[in-house]
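Input.
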Amino acid sequence: MRKLIMLFYLFVLANTILIPACFAQENSKMKAAFIYNFPKYINWPNEENFKEFSIGILGKKNIKLQLELERISASRLINNLPIKIKVFNSIEEIIPTQMLYANGADGFDQEKIFNKITGKEILLVAENLEDFNLSMINFIEQNGKQVISINQKSVEGENIKISPKLISLSILNEKEWNDVYSKFNDLLKTDKKKIEVTKKDIENAVLTNEIQKKENEELLKNVQAKIQALVKQESEIGKQSKNLTLQELEIENQSQKLVQQELEIQKQTEKIESQLIYVNQQKEDILKQNIEIEDQKNTLKIQLSQIEAQKVMLYQFVGVLVLFLLLVFFIYRSYRQKKKANSDILEQKLLVDEKNKIVEEKNKEITDSINYAKRIQQAKLPKRDEIYSSFPQSFILFKPKDIVSGDFYFYHKNENSAIIAAVDCTGHGVPGAFMSIIGSEKLDDAVSSTTDTSEILKLLNKGIKTSLRQSENIESTRDGMDIALCCMELPTAEGKVGLKFAGANRPIWIVRKEKNEIEEIRATKKAIGGFTDYNQNFNTHELQLEGGDTFYIFSDGYADTFGGKKDKKLTTRKFKHMLLEIQHKTMYEQEQHLNNFIENWKGETEQIDDILVIGVRV
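Output.
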């Protein structure tokens, strides 16, 4: 009876080994077919740059799937690319592939696998995974059929696109996954219960058979005959099982040999590449030696040519020696001639020194005269204390090009108003200074007659043309001046100040309080004197200023100063920009800023014109 029970167990064991093995073989073929066909419905980023399509397999336990994929790769292509199968023994060995197969039943940490491939554009194809959120494509058995689930969010997170056709055939959400997974676990539990019941039934049968042992003696003899037949079958099954196990081991050994051969081929390839590098290095060394030989040949040719040149030089030396002797003769003769010439030059030098002394004396007399003229011109200029008494928040930046200036400033105070002007006469230096003295006298005459700014300029024009006897005659002088003239009245009860402005070719710039812009009032486009008509009229502009408003009048000297890195003019645009930048400063600070800037701007460049800038803040 015991033999019968043992035979029954062997029969059950054979079925549990052979039938799942056959099923596993068919299951591997089906999964390999799925994996081979997935790329038809999937697009990887930069797919056009692939040189091969690589599929990774995690773990050594998936040998059947590996063999099936290798069988497919030997005769087929994926997207017209050769297929490369790579096996990784651990998660750490994983390198970028297009697809990676993993089996959750192999004991690998699902989260570590997912983190390892994240961001590397690898499609994870797996089975027996527990967490839907850590999967991409997963094989699931549902109602006895093999189906797939797709975590579309994870796949698209790797910039991989799956066609709607494939998506329509899959489980797409975690709820469906959990339902299938629960059914699978329930099925497993049911199977376990059935096995437990079967086991108990067998144990009960054994007990029953022991009890009925004596009653079934005759039956036992018949059964023993059958047992002998079953023993033979058992023996055959054992042999077949052993052969099948040997075949599996042989396949695994062959697979390992193939892997070993691939490693050997890789080593041979690396060795060949190393030898190629060595050969190329040898070629380079030979090329360098050939170059050195050519250089030595060239050096030998040069040395031979130098020997020939030395012979030539010897002949030349003899010739040069003869020439040298002739040269000595001529030098001696020339020395005697130069000695006589030097004596004549010395006499001429003494004569030139005498004349230079006379010129220096004359220059000193002229300089003294110009300095005296400077004192006269400064005496004609208004005192700044008087100007500051009428315009307490103001500055006058006055920088003549020479000792005396063609620019000058003018001030006159009446009972209810004060007049201030910036004047730019024709020329600079002594001629400009003469014009400034004449202009200052004529301005005094004009403001003593009227406070109307346009009338003042009209009288000034007549006075200049009369004093310089300027007429329509082409031979008469054409000297004149440009001017910006302002008459500022006493403040009103509302705190506003009236300002009258008239100009001849020179504008006035106004910066209103808390406004970052310049309001430009243009002058009449006519000069004082020169070609201007005797009865020329000039426009008056009446303006209203408030406390904190600032106005500027000036000659063209500041904006026309050359300097900077490129030695160019400062320009009016930059001058305006600078005035806006320093509006937050006091008028004294503005004067210092303008003076320091123009000194740094011109640097070593010579000043080409007189500079005059007047600023007044109400």
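The mean pLDDT is 82.
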